[in-house]
């Protein structure tokens, strides 16, 4: 029996062939007409090629998932389809690459939400906020007013994590450690309206015991990359909080490489206008990348919706932060705890989802990309902290 994937693959091959031989495409659609007169058709086809290619690839992946389960289960009334009825609605909606480093050493694999929150904790730890694992009874709490401006907060998982009643230690000017809550005020900015609406409702629906969290949390839907284009309310809120706070921090957790035209306008604004310190998980390229790998990277970053201008080396990143006015800059490479473990997780998740008729869908491409980054070393995952 011919697989349903073959007709789709045939169409894909034909599309690719027509892309590289546009005259052939015109000849197929309009054999009686002059190629010179109708060459504009090839131009419009080139514009439509990428969306069509994405659609066909997504269909191929869905066909693969279905084919993997044609093992005679048609004779069953339900098979494993009822597995989807047992799935809980997401208790969390984390979305970053994660920090896949199991400190407990018990050998158990980390869950995706745990790895995502661990990445946030690693950024905080690098910035000088150490989680307090000891009892705080009998200790005097020093409440310093700190505000965090979160550039790209997703669905508010990191919002809740940052603002919940977790005690941290932070270095004082004297070098001693004070017991604090990490931040007393939170301003979040996201460009994705659907995620903004989800996050806003999620924070609003927190139990009454977390009323203080909502009171000190402000969420905005705007382009974090362009401070000059921020709505008046957002800009006034940010500048007022920064003026009134003892410390201002700007956080970007796995978001900055998407910023257009680049990450630097908001970083310069944070340093020079807000006098804010800066902490992030971000991507940079290796110091030496072969030409063919650089070409492939440029293609992938285009598909990711990430401007190529954002992909610099770690040293270039450090130099730019100093140019912005920062004096104390830390750049830690944590790639080994990010790309390969994430690719392994996606492999395992795909295998498990196929048992109940699902698959990774478009995350297949992401899995391949993370595996390539891990094996080639062309892309590096870094934790960056810059202080005034």
Automatic annotation (TrEMBL):
Keyword Membrane appears in the UniProt entry: yes
InterPro entries reported for this sequence: SAM-dependent_MTases_sf (IPR029063)
Transmembrane segments: 6-30, 42-61
Keyword list, A-Z: Membrane, Transmembrane, Transmembrane helix
Domain of life: Eukaryota
Name the UniProt record assigns to this protein: Uncharacterized protein
